[in-house]
Design goal:
The complex is a heterodimer of chains A (about 325) and B (about 500). With about 325 residues, chain A is mainly α. Chain A contains 14 helices and 4 strands. Chain B has 17 helices and 22 strands. In chain B, the strands form 5 sheets. Chain B has a 6-stranded mixed beta sheet with strand order 6-7-8-3-9-10, with helices on both faces. The chains are: A mainly alpha (about 325), B alpha/beta (about 500). The complex binds adenosine-5'-triphosphate (ATP) and magnesium ion.
Chain lengths: ~325, ~500
């Protein structure tokens, strides 16, 4: 009855294409991954050889293990910046124990236990303090870096005997043992996240901590358990990296925290928590591995590589904000 | 409303689907200048979606929005604002750390030159604007220190400052008490008289009837009818909303004896504001608790629910044994289930599914040695969805995609599934439609008949009278009155709550 004036007006049309911004955000990294593969494969045919692909898996194995553990922390709205330094400490603990006792078993035990204990301590600090996990674990990271230097006395602890034979040289059906360890870590985290109450509590705490508390979830205890669990993964990674390097180094874990968190975020787990998957994290790890491998093959320098890594992390976080 | 004036905003044939399901189906709609237009419908009928499309917060799949002589396929929020459309959500999207004045003038702050903010001028202009609207708000106060009702008023003042001529209100009174709601109605009427077009969504049909010039009824995303506010009546409205006539409310209040006290409070005081409260609640009894904001109703719930446990003086007994929970989970272990009013902030985990939200407080019963029984969980959630009429019946749907009323049902489902002995519920049916509200009340009554005890806090007078066996009115942390809902009418109850406000002014 009163619409004539309006109908006469020119309709303002806006494009409403199928792929809106958020969808694009979710798939951008996959597209980037494919682009990298294509470009590198054209530039260097060796890139797609089974040998090289296996080499990439081998190189990212310790990262994959650390990132699997980090996944549940981010899902729970937490974060552990100390994992790199803890990795060094665990690796040194392994190497020193083997050096002093000659027992590889004790060495493995020392690495895994130290990783777990460090994780639990971080968890306790996070659970009982108001400061953010970022600040708290930044502190423990600096502390642990000091510990690692003291432990090593400033020089590498060389010689790990059997550990090197297995993780550095050994394989099964042509696949190096560390790669199995990485996939096992992903599988374990997948099971924890999907099928256990602990995993569910992590999602609930990350999604809404107060709601979790009002539902009777022992939030503090769960947080400590989650950091300790992540610490187990860090300890295992420390043992394996020590085997791969046939030595413990105070700098062996340097940078792992950033790359692990980057892999988790690239894999679709938001920094605010409440959702996420470890399969996504595996994708993030592989992406990082592919990128650094292709840059190596294309002869890109180390400084430039680190700039590219920074770009990828920034892009991942920015794209996530939109999605 | 005057049909000679052109509509302030008009919508033609708007359609919107989510995940293949129609949320809005070919809806036509218009509001005239100076009209208050009620919009009603069941939970999930599409009211909020429609409001978001009107404001530009969401684009429709097809259809037109015609405003200011321009037809849009879709508005974006900036275009909506430029066209003079303002939306005020139940919990307004404002900046809690800024002052009232700063919120009102956000993005248009008076400046002295060189870009320096002129706080004095801003405060003065805010004061003047608020006075013109008949609002009495402290312009320099931090917004976070104000209650929801005041925040809504700030949001409305901001809309007026932005020269909005269409004001969209999505369930503004759901979290308000009666006095606050009355105040809001006066404001709405004033604004309408000055030519503002207002769209008003609510499940409180008495309010809608009282304030609306016209009322549009949505059902399953379709427009069922538009009726004149004057000629409509509540039962007719209900049958259009639901699609059939509802049976008259049967107020079966079983003769629950308080001979068997389940919960006993003796001289309980708390930091949260309780002052020497003594109370006995019988097994199977449903007690409604109300009062003015800060009167102590929520403080009572917090103490019983185990939320407020520091510096609680006095003694509590539960099921014949001493009860002094030091954490919510200790209360839950004793069978006490608390559900907060603040559903988004403290209740639901928005990133999780319906099933995972329902099971959250009782995962122990759904797991063995820490391993979850996922298929059992899905079954439980499906069953609970049916019992509470939770739509859609899709246990794996994330709750953030649910309509407001259905989110409330999921939250309530959590408590019911946890199978408590004592339910402590804050605003159990806030934002829930008429039919579902009755279903939930019936359900709670059945739980009580089977021996569960219910203590609920509500500001909804009808709900208190319909559901409670006994109503407690709290003031200043004390139980001021105890009323039987039998034969009580809402006006009497309102008087009981408000007479105290006269006294409590010092
Ligand atoms: N982002 C979304 N994704 C998927 N489904 C959605 C989304 N938003 C709304 N819906 C669905 O659209 C329908 C309409 O929802 P809407 O919020 O408009 O209902 P409503 O009438 O406001 O209900 P209530 O009275 O409960 O607030 C519901 O079935 C809801 O589940
Ligand atoms: Mg709604």
């Amino acid at each position: 009855m009163t619409s004539s004036a309006a109908t006469a007006a020119k309709p303002v049309v806006r494009k409403s294409g199928a792929l809106r911004g958020q969808d694009l955000g979710r798939y951008t990294l996959l597209i980037v991954l494919l682009l990298i593969v294509v470009v590198t494969a054209i530039g260097n045919p060796r890139f797609l050889s089974v040998n090289n692909l296996m080499n990439i898996l081998f190189q990212v194995s310790a990262l994959g293990i650390v990132a699997s553990g980090q996944t549940i922390l981010l899902i729970a709205g937490g974060l552990d910046l100390a994992v790199g330094a803890a990795l060094s400490v665990a690796g040194l603990a392994t190497a020193l124990t083997i050096m002093h006792t000659g027992s590889v078993t004790l060495g493995i035990l020392a690495g895994v236990v130290s990783g777990t204990v460090i994780g639990a301590i971080n968890g306790m600090l996070v659970a009982t303090n108001r400061a953010t996990p970022f600040i708290i674990t930044l502190g423990t990271m600096t502390f642990l870096q000091g510990v690692a230097i003291i432990m090593s006395g400033g020089s590498p602890i060389n010689g790990t005997g059997k550990l090197f034979d297995v993780f550095g040289l050994g394989d099964f059906l042509g696949v190096p043992w560390p790669v199995y360890a990485m996939f096992a870590s992903v599988l374990v985290m997948f099971l924890v996240l999907r099928f256990t109450t602990l995993g569910r509590y992590a999602f609930a705490i990350g999604g809404n901590e107060e709601a979790a508390r009002l539902s009777g979830i022992p939030v503090r205890r769960i947080k400590i358990a989650l950091y300790a669990l992540s610490g187990v993964f860090v300890g295992v990674a420390g043992v394996i990296l020590t085997g791969i390097l046939d030595s413990g180094l105070p700098s062996m874990g340097t940078g792992y925290e950033l790359r692990a968190i980057a892999a988790v975020v690239i894999g679709g787990t938001p920094l605010i928590g409440g959702r996420g998957t470890v399969i996504g994290t595996l994708g993030g790890v592989l992406l990082l591995g592919l990128v650094s491998n292709s840059m190596n093959l294309l002869g890109v320098g180390a400084n430039f590589q680190s700039a590219v890594l920074g770009l990828i992390i920034t892009a991942a976080v920015l794209l996530q904000k939109k999605a | 409303m005057n049909s000679a004036t052109p509509p302030a905003i008009q919508v033609r044939s708007v359609t919107k689907s989510f995940l293949g399901q129609r949320a809005l189906d070919d809806v036509d709609f218009e509001v005239a200048r100076g009209e208050v237009h009620g919009l009603v419908g069941k939970n999930g009928a599409g009211k909020s979606t429609f409001m978001k499309i009107l404001s530009g917060a969401q684009p429709p799949d097809s259809g037109q929005i015609i405003v200011g002589g321009t037809a849009f396929k879709a508005l974006n929020p900036a275009e909506g604002r430029a066209a003079g459309i303002a939306i005020v959500y139940q919990n307004p999207e404002l900046h809690l750390d800024l002052s009232v004045a700063a919120n009102i003038f956000l993005g248009a702050e008076p400046r002295k030159g060189f870009g320096i903010l002129d706080d004095k001028a801003m405060a003065a202009r805010a004061t003047e604007l608020l006075a013109r609207l008949g609002l009495d708000l402290p312009v320099n106060q931090r917004l976070g220190d104000l209650d929801i009702a005041d925040r809504q008023q700030v949001a409305i003042a901001k809309a007026v400052r932005e020269k909005a001529h269409v004001l969209l209100l999505d369930e503004p009174t759901a979290a308000l008490n009666k006095a606050q709601a009355e105040f809001l109605f006066r404001l709405i009427r004033d604004l309408a008289r000055q030519g503002m077009a207002i769209v008003y969504v609510s499940h409180h049909l008495d309010e809608v009837l009282a304030i609306s010039d016209r009322i549009t009824i949505l059902r399953n995303g379709r427009k069922v009818a538009v009726v004149e506010g004057k000629s409509a009546d509540k039962d007719g409205l209900i049958s259009m909303i639901v699609g059939r006539t509802l049976d008259a409310v049967e107020t079966h209040r079983s003769e629950r004896l308080r001979a068997d006290p389940f919960l006993i409070l003796e001289g309980v005081s708390s930091q949260g504001g309780l002052d020497n409260v003594s109370l006995q609640v019988g097994k199977g009894e449903i007690v409604g608790v109300t009062g003015l904001i800060g009167g102590g109703a929520n403080a009572l719930a917090a103490v019983i629910g185990g939320l407020d446990h520091r510096d609680v003086a006095g003694r509590m007994m539960l099921g014949g044994q001493s009860y002094a929970p030091r954490a919510v989970r200790e209360a839950i272990a004793r069978g006490v289930l608390f559900i907060p009013e603040d559903m988004r902030g403290r209740g639901l985990v928005m990133s999780l599914s319906i099933a995972k939200n329902i099971s959250l407080a009782a995962l122990k019963s759904l797991s063995k040695m820490g391993w979850l029984k996922l298929s059992k969980e899905t079954g439980v959630a499906t069953e609970m969805s049916e019992r509470l009429d939770l739509n859609p019946r899709a246990p794996s749907r994330e709750v953030r995609f649910l309509s407001g009323g259905n989110q409330r049902k999921a939250l309530l489902g959590r408590a019911i599934f946890a199978d408590g002995k004592l339910f402590v519920l804050e605003e159990p049916t806030q934002g829930v439609d008429v039919e579902s509200q009755r279903q939930i009340h019936d359900h709670l009554r059945r739980l009580a008949d089977r021996g569960a005890t219910v203590v609920f806090v509500s500001t909804d007078l009808e709900e208190l009278i319909a559901l409670a066996d006994r109503i407690l009115v709290l003031r200043a942390g004390r139980i001021e009155q105890e009323l039987s809902p039998e034969g009580l009418d809402p006006q009497q109850l309102l008087v009981a709550i408000q007479t105290q406000s006269a006294r409590s002014v010092n």
